[in-house]
Design a protein that fits this description.
The chain is of the alpha/beta class. The protein contains ten helices and five strands, in the order E-H-E-H-E-H-E-H-E-H-H-H-H-H-H. The model has no long low-confidence stretch (mean pLDDT 89). It has a five-stranded parallel β-sheet, sandwiched between helices. Helix 7 packs across helix 9.
Length: 211
């Protein structure tokens, strides 16, 4: 019986040391082979088209015009059957959810063990998924609430800075009444009782970052 072909992997990460480490780890798995490496989104899209890997390991934080989410979307647009695992340092709910919505079959932290990474690659290659526990519940919660508009995210950032409705209105060149309406909309969509809770939820989901 002929030997089973190895699972062909495309690595996408802007840090060469990370890619080297992954190549070293995965080379210890006889049924997994790294066939290409990309250091940015544009390169990843091109290499995916030319190599047609079985599974792609994709970082979210990359330089250039394409971040991980946009790279994921482009890869999936040109190859709907593409199997992609997001491998990143981010544990923000917002990043997890955006990755799943973009078509990722897996989402793993970079502190994953070699055994767990290899198992995830095999599972995704076979048509399965490897996603954080409790994701289905969080997805259901998000489905019940509309996502914030760009304007509301801007208001949320001003809320993080501690600005009053009057100050938000001045900064955005809108009336205090309109600013208050935006703040109320943000609280409602996030299911928050007050500004402090809204900001905490925003941090948890990665909607805002620390200064």
């Amino acid at each position: 019986m002929p030997a089973k072909a190895p699972i062909r992997i495309l690595l996408v990460d802007d840090h060469s040391i990370v890619r080297m480490g992954l190549v070293t780890l995965l080379s210890a798995e006889p049924d997994i082979q790294v066939v290409a490496e990309a250091e940015d989104g544009e390169q990843a899209v091109g290499l995916h088209a030319s190599h047609k890997p079985d599974v792609t390991l994709l970082d979210l934080r990359m330089p250039g015009g394409l971040d991980g989410i946009e790279t994921l979307k482009r890869v999936r647009a040109q190859s709907p059957e593409a199997r992609v695992i997001v491998l990143t340092t981010s544990e923000f709910d917002e990043d997890v959810l955006r990755s799943v919505e973009g078509g990722a079959a897996g989402y793993l932290s970079k502190n994953v063990t070699r055994g767990d990474l290899a198992a995830a690659i095999r599972r995704v290659h076979e048509g399965g998924s490897c996603l954080p526990a409790g994701l289905a519940r969080r997805m259901d919660e998000w489905a019940r609430r509309r996502q914030l508009t760009g304007r509301e995210v801007e208001v949320l950032e001003f809320m993080r800075r501690g600005l009053s409705n009057r100050e938000i209105g001045k900064a955005m060149e809108i009336s205090e009444h309109t600013a208050k309406a935006h703040v109320c909309a943000v609280l409602g969509k996030l299911g928050a009782a007050d500004r402090a809770e809204a900001v905490n939820i925003a941090f948890e989901r990665g909607l805002v970052r620390t200064a």
